[in-house]
Design a protein that fits this description.
Two copies of one chain form a homodimer. Chain A is an alpha/beta fold. Chain A is built from six helices and 15 strands. Chain A is globular. The interface between A and B is large, with 53 and 55 residues.
Chain lengths: 300, 300
């Protein structure tokens, strides 16, 4: 027997793990440099971190921070889109979207080797914890869990807090996503003990590798790095980097360090999901007749 | 502020990772010895491996193997229940249940320091892969994902193949389970390459630790160990042991080796889920308005 579906289909991916450079222009300059470096390295897809245009402003609640938002399409999509076209890259960007006055989203945008927008994803699960006051800024996404088709494959694009939800990854897999992608901005409270810090970072890595396993899909997560002080005199956040590329058995293909800017490049074989799902056909055996209560808040 | 909910509530658990001893009586003798050892070590709960009364007979399809099945309650529940009562243990057993002629299940049984059965769980997700021909033997469970209340807590009991399904763990968490438990029997095809073997074992560990993280729950998995030859001249299975205890951030609390019988004992603080879920309140933010398609086979 011959099988076209088992022929390797290698995609070189690049994840640009960055610090905040202090202004939108400086950040977009760093992103432009990173995209050029990724293209020179032969990458076909580049994943940027969450809200890469500025600091992680959700450390406090201030109406002035809404000034950072912009429409989609808008000036940032114009600049990044032009680079995607020039450099012949699929680029996954992450922006603070102003949809109208008083209506904002945390939105990821995909370009497919073109200045045109191939698709957007509006973050569905919105956190709200000390130093991560996102519910103040972002209306939960209203376009659901819909993958975005590109020339390199069907992208199951999710954002940060979504990465803790197996439901999100599964819905993308069920819609035929070939790759799970997470722009993210997560870090430590500097006051936490070292053991707690290690548990948190490990948990973040494990839960995502778990989504890769459960769905037989490769997974990319691009996280922010560097310390960002709190605007209100809080403790600030030490973003933990650790951007990663996992294969469809959750195996680590590449991972970045904790504390520095890094362009993480890895080869992902998109065809391996076919063989992995043949030995572990989890989708075959889902008990959809018994899952109704997944739609409930709690079974009480 | 004082909080009763954050006071430690430590449960000493024991996982009895065993080989097949060649007969039901020999296996139950080994289980009796293990339960006595666990009780002497101060354990309050003992988890046994999947189908612990015999070999993993699903390596082939043979009508004669149905002779191994027994009713519940039946002789094995009588013997194990008596030990649970005598030794004052919560015991989680795993049996081949004969419900009637031509209707069999892979069923886990809980005893709560009593010879009475506290509850059963019938394996919901049934695998069928080369050397794991379970669809021939086991009718998929028809009592759903319902935790079992015991004196040591509400047990989210699942079995083996269920461990690959985030849906199963989530449904138990939503029903108030305080602990996820998996009797299991998984191993390697001896012909697989070492790297593939490592990926498979790692994936099995990762996906389960991921359930612990996603649900903020501790998790126990008790796996079989030892090589079992195939009755039909196949390659046999090298069960990989590696039984594990994880905490509610997916942190490893204890893990057994690959190749030998082991009684794995660990302390689990059931109260830690409260504090972990306060910093990571995933249940708060589930998008139950957007999860409908989890009830579909595929979104095509």
């Amino acid at each position: 027997m011959t099988s076209l579906t088992k022929k390797p289909r290698t995609l070189k991916v690049a994840l640009l793990q960055e610090t905040d450079r202090g202004s939108r222009d400086a950040n977009l300059d760093a992103i432009e440099a990173g995209l050029r470096e990724a293209a020179a390295a032969g990458a076909g897809l580049v994943l940027l971190q969450e809200l890469h245009n500025g600091p992680y402003f959700c450390q406090h609640e201030s109406v002035d921070e809404f000034d950072r938002a912009e429409p989609i399409p808008g000036p940032s999509t114009a600049r990044i889109g032009a680079l995607a076209e020039t450099l012949k890259l699929v680029v996954v960007a992450s922006l603070f979207e102003r949809r109208t006055a008083g209506l904002y989203h945390n939105t990821a945008v995909v370009f497919d080797r073109s200045r045109e927008i191939a698709g957007i994803y509006r973050k569905m699960h919105i956190p709200d914890d000390p130093a991560f006051y996102e519910k103040f800024y972002f209306t939960p996404g209203d376009i659901g869990f819909e993958p975005i088709d590109t020339s390199v494959g069907r992208l199951g694009l999710l954002v940060c807090w979504d990465q803790w939800y197996p439901e999100a990854a599964r819905l993308m897999a069920l819609a035929g996503a070939e790759l799970l992608l997470y722009p993210t901005a997560i870090g430590w409270d500097p006051n936490d003990a070292d053991e707690e810090k290690q548990r948190q970072r490990d948990a973040w890595i494990i839960v995502q590798r778990g989504h890769a396993v459960a769905n037989g899909l490769p997974l990319l997560a691009c996280n922010r790095t560097g310390f960002e002080a709190a605007p209100d005199g809080g403790r600030g956040i030490q973003f933990w980097g650790s951007s990663l590329v996992a294969g469809p058995q959750g195996e680590m293909l590449a991972s970045a360090g904790v504390g520095a800017r890094e362009l993480l490049v890895a080869d992902v074989d998109l065809a391996r999901s076919e063989s992995v799902r043949r030995i572990w056909p989890f989708l075959r055996d889902r008990r959809i007749d018994a899952y109704d209560d997944l739609l409930r808040r709690f079974r009480d």
